[in-house]
């Protein structure tokens, strides 16, 4: 189980996303896992054709520092870094997170049916995350589950010193995130429809959720690549 996670969003050069995905899925999955990183999910952002999103995990912060030093100082990255970097405009939009609930992908295999994965980011004022997580567990999660979107994972910002400074992480962020999985866009639309018809959501939960946020939430709608574990 990963107790440290990175949500990485890359802005790519126009038309280069499939080039990076082909390279990534071929060269950067098993080779990262061999040094202690867990490649959990790789995705095409459905709202931005030039954005690649992926999720990486580590057992803890010391394991993160060791794994990143070994991978980025090793022969595989040396052989392919120029090709990878040539596809990118920006790779610094990185959130350092930790799981709030059990987040295990044991028994899953890479590949399989194509699905739709969502990552919803709630941006919170400093100090508001504990109360928000209690509210999420008591009021939000039950409604999500009842309307067809049980969270696969709930994550929060991890306050820890970046122990691999060569790869920046966002220090301005304070988020709670939940990851959802749907069979496709129709299932997501049905979830949104059912949630919108719930008076508990529209009259009570949504206004309180909005009140607690520092700014409007973001939702990433993501298509897993052929080798993504999360799907």
UniProtKB/TrEMBL annotation:
| Pfam families the record matches | NIPSNAP (PF07978)
Limits of the NIPSNAP domain: 6-100
> Per its UniProt record, what InterPro entries does this chain match?
Dimeric_a/b-barrel, NIPSNAP
Q: What is the protein's name according to its record?
A: NIPSNAP family protein
Which lineage do the record's taxonomy fields give for this organism?
Answer: Bacteria, Bacillati, Actinomycetota, Actinomycetes, Pseudonocardiales
């Amino acid at each position: 189980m990963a107790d440290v996670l990175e949500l990485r969003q890359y802005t790519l050069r126009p038309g280069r996303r499939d080039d990076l995905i082909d390279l990534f899925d071929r060269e950067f999955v098993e080779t990262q896992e061999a040094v202690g990183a867990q490649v959990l999910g790789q995705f095409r952002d459905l709202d931005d054709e030039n954005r690649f999103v992926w999720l990486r995990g580590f057992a803890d912060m010391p394991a993160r520092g060791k794994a990143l030093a070994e991978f980025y100082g090793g022969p595989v990255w040396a052989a392919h870094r120029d090709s990878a970097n040539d596809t990118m405009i920006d790779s610094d939009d990185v959130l350092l997170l930790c799981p709030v609930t059990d987040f295990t992908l044991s028994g899953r295999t890479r590949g399989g049916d194509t699905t739709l994965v969502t990552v919803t980011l709630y941006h919170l004022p400093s100090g508001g995350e504990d109360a928000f997580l209690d509210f999420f567990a008591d009021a939000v999660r039950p409604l999500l589950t009842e309307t067809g979107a049980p969270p696969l994972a709930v994550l929060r910002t991890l306050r820890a010193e970046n122990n691999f400074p060569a790869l920046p992480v966002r220090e301005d962020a304070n988020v709670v995130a939940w990851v959802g999985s749907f069979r496709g866009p129709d299932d997501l639309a049905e979830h949104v429809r059912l949630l919108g018809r719930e008076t508990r959501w529209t009259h009570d939960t949504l206004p309180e959720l909005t009140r607690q946020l520092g700014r409007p939430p973001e939702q990433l709608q993501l298509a897993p690549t052929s080798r993504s574990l999360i799907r």
